[in-house]
Specification:
TIM Barrel, alpha/beta, globular, two-stranded antiparallel ribbon
Length: about 250
């Protein structure tokens, strides 16, 4: 088992996960940086068995995934079997499908996803929703994210709060982490910096988010996996992942 609860969200290095050989090299690189776990996301074609073999050979656990919502709906048993093969408990989706992005859609998705994800929960997995900033739009006094929380089944529907996108939407990451503290297993740690008036992605600890209270809120929520992500990087994305890990360890997270 990994000795660290910090994982690399591999969407950060999505240009290096197009083929099985790419994925193998990427697992080796992130392990060399010091990561013992990853979130699988935005991979090119690879068989579940080959991915399991790469994970084992490189000594990198697949702690979580981003999985297509449509696949969860259409092939729940296959999703379960793949995650069991990988020794991975946490299934997440990367965002709300476009057709649900309105008030009635948020309500409908909360109910439909609660039903669709039930087979995952029954098999011992978890299902989480990853936010961006559009979910902080208000509809009759409630944000879309509040609608998802209030209208979904708490026994099924969990959340993967993304610190950057909460801040980007005008929210306080600490407040939202506390609000969802009983419905979280995994979190996305992502920083925000400024370039003039433009908001930018940054390595954790290199931007303007206040990490001490954020990490304290994560501990209150008893987060199992802290997943580092940077959607765009100024140079080599592996360097950005390495810098984030270095900074988080300097903050006392292991």
């Amino acid at each position: 088992m990994p000795t660290s609860a910090i994982g690399a969200q591999l969407f950060t290095v999505r240009d290096y996960t197009k083929t099985p050989d790419d994925i193998r090299q990427t697992f080796a690189k992130v392990r060399a940086l010091g990561y013992e776990a990853v979130q699988a996301s935005a991979f090119g074609a690879i068989s579940p068995a080959e991915l399991a073999a790469i994970s084992k050979a490189e000594g990198v656990q697949i702690a979580a995934t981003h999985t297509s919502y449509q696949r969860i709906c259409d092939q729940p048993q296959a999703v379960v079997e793949e995650h069991q093969m990988w020794g991975c408990r946490h299934v997440a989706i990367g965002g709300l499908p476009a057709e649900y992005r309105h008030r009635e859609g948020f309500v409908r998705f909360a109910a439909e996803a609660s039903a669709a994800a039930r087979p995952l929960i029954d098999a011992g997995l978890t299902f989480s929703y990853h936010n961006h900033s559009f979910e902080l739009e208000r509809f009759a006094g409630r944000t879309g994210l509040d609608i998802l929380r209030e209208e979904s089944d708490p026994a099924v529907f969990s959340f993967e709060i993304d610190t950057y996108w909460i801040q980007h939407g005008g929210g306080n990451p600490v407040s939202w982490l506390d609000k969802f503290r009983d419905r979280m297993h995994i979190v996305h740690l992502k920083d925000l910096s400024m370039d003039g008036a433009k908001q930018c992605f940054a390595a954790v600890g290199e931007g303007n988010l206040e990490w001490e209270p954020i990490l304290t809120a994560c501990k209150r929520a008893q987060i199992e996996w802290y997943l580092v992500e940077q959607d765009t990087c100024p140079g080599d994305p592996f360097d950005s992942l390495g810098l984030s890990l270095h900074n988080l360890r300097a903050m006392g997270l292991d």
